[in-house]
Amino acid sequence: LKASQIVYGELTMKDVSLDAELVNGKLSSTLNSLTLYGASANGVMQIDGSQNTPRLAGKLIATGADTKALLSDLAGISQIGGKADIRLDLAASGRSQAEMVSNLLGTARMEVRDGLLEGVDIAGMVQGVQRSILDGWSDGASGSTRFDTLSADFTVKDGIAETRQLLASGDGFRVEGNGEADILRRRLNFKVAPQVAAADGSG
Fold first, then answer.
1. How many CB atoms are located within 10 Å of the residue 45 CB?
2. Would you say 102 and 184 are in contact if contact means Cβ atoms under 8 Å apart?
C-alpha cells in the first residue's frame, strides 16, 4: 500500500509505503519507507481493534528529522532546532487520541546534531550559574545556544517521557541533565547542570 500523506493527530507522515495484514480485528503493518519531517524512516505498527479499548503499538527509526517541526507538532516545543535521529518503541490504548497519549508507554531515544536552542544562553549560564532549573520557556527568555550534539534516552509512562541522561555539548560547554516532558499537557520540567568543557570536550 502507498499513501502520499498520513496525518495522526498533529503528526504528519509523507510518501508512505507499507505492507498490511488484517486478521480478526488486528492490523499488522510494516512501514517499508516513509518521510517524517524530512527524515527517512521505517518501522512496524500493530493496531488491535478486537477489544473494547483499541490498542496501538509500534517501533520507528528515523534519520535526519527536522527537530523543530517535529517537536512543535508532537509536544508544542518549538525552541530546539537541528537534525534528529530518532528511535521509538511505544504502545498506547484508549478510545480517543487524548486517552491514548495519557496511556502512552515505552522507550524513546533522540540525538540532535548541529542544533540551536532558542531562549536559553548556556554560555551565560556557564559564566554565572552552576545549576538551573528549566520549566518551559518564559515570555521573557532571551538568548540562544548553538550546540554540536544533544541526546537523551527516555522512558515513557502514562504519557510522560522521563530522562535521567540528557547530554548536550557545544563550543566551550557541556550540559548534563534530567527531567520529564508531559506530552499530553505539553509541559517541560528539566534540571540541567552546565559546565565549561575542556579542550578535549570533557567537563
1. 17
2. yes
